[in-house]
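Database export, one record per block. Field names are fixed; values are copied verbatim from the stored entry.
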Amino acid sequence: MEAACRAGHHLEVARYTVQRGGCVYSKEDGTTCLHQAAKVGNLEMVSLLLSTGQVDVRAQDSGGWTPIIWATEHQHNEVIRMLLTRDADVTLTDNEENISLARGGQLRHPHGDHLPGCGSRLR
């Protein structure tokens, strides 16, 4: 499942696995498939995983990174928007006390309002 979450062309494999009860948590370090999909910007996979109700949009990996921190780090704006609509918490800090707002300064609420401390809008 982990490989399917990272690669865009394995969406059907992931869908089949999820439908058969496959686990969406992938590693002992707390990384989830949602972390992986957000990191690589796989919007379809993020959508699929969120639709299962099995993922925690606020889950932190062993470094304290959440899916939205990964998406922000790699500037995957559509993924960021989707995670925000699912109540991703942009104020959670990683193990080094960084927050996703500090990564790129580009987050805003999906309805167009800037989030506190954010400089520019998503494109």
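Remark 1: Residues 59 and 93 are 12 Å apart (CA to CA).
Remark 2: The chain has one domain: 2-102.
End of record.
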